[in-house]
Amino acid sequence: MAKKESAVLQEHDVQRLNDYQHARLRTEMYLGSRSVHESQVLIFGESGYEVKNVEWVPAILTATREIIDNSLDEFKKAGTKEPVLKVDFNEEELSFEISDNGRGIPIDYVPEYQKNLCTMVMTETKTGRNFDDSKRDETIGQNGLGGSVAMIVSSKAELEIHRQGRPYKTQSSNDGYDGFYKFNQKFEEGTIMFPELHVHEPTIRKVQTDKTGTTIRFTLSKEVFPNRKLPTELLYSILKEMAAANPTYKIFLNGKRIAIKGNTEKALFNASKLMQLNVKDDSFNFNSTFYIVPNAVAGMNTNFHMHGLVNNAPAFDGGTHLDTFKKFFSLGVGTALEKESKKRRMKPNRSDIEEGLLIYNVTTMKAPSFNSQIKSKLTNENVIRPIQQAMNTEWFDELVKKNKEWVDEIFERCAARTNKKDAEEDRRLAKKLLKGKVAKLLDSTGTDRSQCILLIAEGDSAISNMASARIPSIHGILPLRGKIMNVSGTEKTKELMDSMALHDIMASINLVPGVKAERSELNYGKLYICADEDEDGKNIGALVCNFLFKFWPELFQDPENPFVYVFKTPFIILEKGKESKYYYGHNVHEYNPDDWKGWKATRAKGLGTLEKANFRDAFTNSVAVAITDDGRLGETLDLIFNKKRADDRKNWME
Length: 654
Known about the structure:
- By secondary structure, this protein is an alpha+beta fold.
- 33% of the residues lie in helices and 22% in strands.
């Protein structure tokens, strides 16, 4: 029961809190902000990556990571041969189940404290094994707080451990058995009357198995976390980074293994070789690799992004290692380019060098220190010197020597900035920029590209079920980022590149402004425009046609083998039992409800509402309407989109 407050404390308006009360009242001190936070983040999906703005509650992510970090640290300390980490996450309930196959938290009973050791470790904020820095080799645990605080801020939790030990209270009960136990203990949040974590008596039983490991189940309390936001895509991204950094680990999210193939470059960026800097200092087991990824950031407030892992912890807020790299990188590149700069009569600045760059880092080291319990920013000063020494003149000279295309891009940005770019430079810039991978493209696997079809649609939600219904050898799918730009045909390459949607279309198909489109050289034989069956959807399709016609009218001049199509999807969905029928946009006028009595009729509100089965029917039976030039297409598009023809447009509509 809650103790009666001291009269002296009451008189002076002073409160004396226990660890449980303090962690739940001042959670920010232990886990970070409980407000919804938005930040520019590098997100890894199943088939690509993207730098974008993401919203989440930092304290929720930290609480989750604390339990995950414990498992990863256990793998390091125990030298687990085939590490397995399983994470199950219910985003709506904010409930987690995190399990590993490590040694299991020690379950021995501690007579002096009348508790099992695992109970102490997971419920007491100052009990742990990470206080000796000499033993913190490539692990992340630091203060002995995280796991216990995660339990304290949960509405309910459960601890399940498989291992050997002496878990019973009496010596006689422990003697005579050296096999394995299953230790299970439940916890519940306290009440106003009892403001302490409610710890149930453990259930301990002997088991005939040599399985070891720890499983922790917990649901974060609504009383502690009124803001409840942690996107699954963010958790997946972090786990994928961990899997790539630890290729021998098997990491699962919601029952599905996060598959990793090849090294970090291949697994995360689908690249065979990236520009990189490798730094090593054996005095504190420091190993740090900086990967330099060009043309990876666009459409953000800052088109330069740095991110990485420190002993598996995501460095969302950077740190001394990333700060040091950034401080010397642009200066060193600029110095290495001095001879070329004189030759081209240009002087690239920091923005020319950094534009579009993603710097990705993986660091392991002994005894890392962080700005707070959140562990999002490295503070060790001893990392500065080895990084600075590695970024020497020889490394910068080799960097610019081996990466001519990137160097050309730097000077092209410099030329654009100083208004010295002519039409030829414009086309060359486009070719360089469009060589990069399209992060969102789900490419076709077919080798005969003339038989492949690219489907474009507005946004990720529109293609989620489309992707699972496609035929991979035929269909490539591209969700467009941002709005479709209304072009006049006179735009410079940089203007087109600034539009993420247009950039992705060009890069996916292999279209270059100012260069005639040769069908045999394109990445796809056909383009299907997918849009909702409403006015906005029609407008998107028209804008795409306008863009393509203004720069590559030849794509509309072969009526025998058209390139551009409008792809029709189910508009009216009829269901009866396991049977389904569909009406599409082109024949919806034939639909008569009286003809379908006893059937459930659904109007598809948009591509995002269609299910896998609906798209499967669309791929099999639907109509793709070809768009070709009948001699009037150019005039029609100009009438619709030319900003100077408002009066003509008004008369036409009347």
